[in-house]
Amino acid sequence: MRDTGQVTTSTDTSVEVLTTELRRRGERVTTARLAVAEVLAGTEEHLSAEQIALRAEELRPGIHRATVYRALDALGELGLVTHVHLGKAGTTYHLAGELAQEHQEHLHVRCTECGAVLDVDGKTLDPVRRKLQRDLGFRLDPEHVALLGICQDCSAS
Amino acid sequence: MRDTGQVTTSTDTSVEVLTTELRRRGERVTTARLAVAEVLAGTEEHLSAEQIALRAEELRPGIHRATVYRALDALGELGLVTHVHLGKAGTTYHLAGELAQEHQEHLHVRCTECGAVLDVDGKTLDPVRRKLQRDLGFRLDPEHVALLGICQDCSAS
DNA sequence: CTGCTTGCAAAGTGTTTGCAGGCCC
DNA sequence: GGGCCTGCAAACACTTTGCAAGCAG
Question: Rounded distance, CA A154 to CA B100, Å?
Answer without folding.
Answer: 28
